[in-house]
Write a structure and sequence with these properties.
- The complex is a heterodimer.
- By secondary structure, chain A is mostly helical.
- Chain A has helices at 12-24, 28-54, 69-80, 82-93, 103-117, 119-124, 150-183, 186-195, 203-236, 248-274, 283-314, 317-328, 332-344, 352-355, 358-385, 400-423, 429-443, 463-467.
- The longest helix of chain A is centred in the middle third of the chain and has 34 residues, at 150-183.
- Chain A has one domain (12-467): Up-down Bundle (Formate dehydrogenase/DMSO reductase fold), CATH 1.20.1630.
- Chain B is α+β, with helices and mostly antiparallel strands.
- Helices cover 26% and strands 14% of the residues of chain B.
- The chains are: A mainly alpha, B alpha+beta.
- The interface between A and B is large, with 46 and 44 residues.
Amino acid sequence: MHTKDINENLPWAQINKDVMRSMMNPRKAYWVAIVVCIAMISCAVAAEIYQYNVGMGPANLNWPHMWDLYIATFIFWIGMSHSGTLLSAILHIIHADWRKPIYRFAEAMTTFSLMTAGIFPIIHIGRLWNMYWVLPYYSDRGIWPNFRSPLVWDAFAISTYLTSSALFLFIGMIPDLAICRDNTTGWRRKLYGILSLGWRGDDRQWRNFRRTYLLMACFLIPLAVSVHSIVSSDFAMSIMPGWHVTTFPPYFVAGALYSGCAAIITLFICLRYFFRLEDYMTTAILVKTCKLTFAIAMVWTYLNLIEFASVWYGHNAVDKELLLSKFNGPYAPYFWLMLFCGSVVPFALAFEKLRTHLPTMMVVSLVLNLGMWLERWMIVTPTLSQGYHPFAFDVMWPSMIQWAIIFGSFGWFGLLFLIFVKVFPCVSMYEVKEMCYHRKREAMGIGHGSTAGGAAGSVPASKSDLEGT
Amino acid sequence: MSLENVLKNWSKYRKGHEEGGFHDYEHMWGMSIDLDKCTGCNACSVACYAENNIAVVGEEKFSKGQGMHWLRIERYWDEPDLGEDKINEYQIHGASFIPMNCQQCNAATCEPVCPVAATYHTPDGLNAQVYNRCIGSRYCSNNCPYRLRYFNFFSYYEDSWPEPLQMQLNPDISVRDKGVMEKCTFCVQRIRKAKDEAAREDRDVFDGDVKTACQQSCATQAIVFGDLMDKNSAVTKVWAKHEVALGKSSQNKANPDNRGYRVLEGLNTDPCVMFLERVREV
């Protein structure tokens, strides 16, 4: 069964119209989702106000378990942000053009999941009103942060990544913002007018635009890899068993891409439904995303297995005991659930029938992300429960305060994302047009850039070419 | 550091293995705890609470693991899994116990991970905790293999010292508020006082000038405290007798008179607290 990624005969004016329509009148489900998100955020805000006033005690933390779900969920959200970069930057560089209709929302997901992740280190610290001490600002007393601490590296890595990915998202949107500016009235016109930075679509602007976009893409790829490697150093740089693991940086990056891809599938299905974008977010593209996710799932499984093997054959008694207690200790149900969700469920992605069935894929992608969330929890907590000193062995269960804040973080992410897709075009209009253009030429038997438009490659000839009307 | 300098001293930069941490120590406060003398009476722990304004958190929070016993007596039962017919065996063997306070590691794992450098090594060889600087990221506690750091999960000053109990607080040190990490300081306020007195009298600190609260209260005098850099101090003599030294990561077990060991020495944390007990090989 082979279907086209996109119908290349879509008229360009139609593309503009469809995407603009998606920003105006979504289905009712969209508004229901907004209300649900706000309700979720309220839970978290209430819990956080209580925690702020009382201290970290109600979160059920205790002296062996100084970190728990806050840090686990922090890693989860950082991880989720990686796939936006994978889709927009890596696939851009290797010219996989099927990414074009879906990369915009993936990139928005990157930015917003980073904004969600950034909240967790702040709310988890005991005196959050002194949070800025982590940053190297000039102080009259000459006090600097401790540059040896991975938490300081985190602060740098995350703020750099957040700035760059937001910039990348914005730059890639400029031609589309110009289309919006030309087709809207009122506040939208004003907003897009400012944001499109005077885009006229002339040749020089396109050339500068392409160059900037490529440059940002090249900059973002090593940055994304380094960000999650640095997050993994929070654990790999420590001395504790189960944390001090050499393979953690690649393991974290693989896990990050994995959960990100699964989240892309979830959001793909939601957006397709909310905004009636069936012509753009086609099943063929979903199938390709599923294949990518499956490949990454297998990499993750492999890295898991070599971690077990290296602990097992390493014969470090403490590490080994910890691993065994993960297998059959108090956290065993969650550990096995993690392995089931992360390594067995992705095989559903290998079957054509399942991956073209949207409701199944919705469930599968959510289950995959549940597995990845459990993975982060199983990294953070068992080590704290069973470290080196037997007197401090303990088991803990997070309190409702923690659950409420974790729950609310999903609402916060959802709200930011839903507002974004309503205000900004969630499908890249100019790139879908490019895609149609190239597909059409291929269908007509004219190769890439062989005749008309030759030297300019993928740069379209004029403004009217891309903006349709 | 110019390039020329780097090239000239290349072998030094390449091979020179510099020990981490601070080097120009004025003192190196150390402790030895004789477990064969210790009766496990908890007097040291109580004295520590009184001396250091440690909050009493109450039974409920304590059983949740939110207590703040800077010096805790740890109990280990010889026979942890009691079968049906072994029900009383633990009473025959009894519990073994060990008082654990901050080990004041010289290569402390808690220090490099603090994002704001609130915990650092002082010229006294102490692993200091600056309460004012602490933001409560709790990374230090996670990276302490002994789990000897305690966090203020709540504000305790109202519950722990209701009127007029606040009058019993030690004025020499602060009361910590919520969100701050704390731990044994080797009674740094007493060290400070002894050093100030010695400076006023223009002399060195004598051995015995500083007595920690736990040492003072120990009925069997199991705790010896002093300056490991002072060749004649009591603690140096105990360390030397049992062939334990800073920088070593194993003991000479061939001599049955050597009872000294440091907890989790193999991790190379280089603690300044030595315990005396003949360790059985299991």
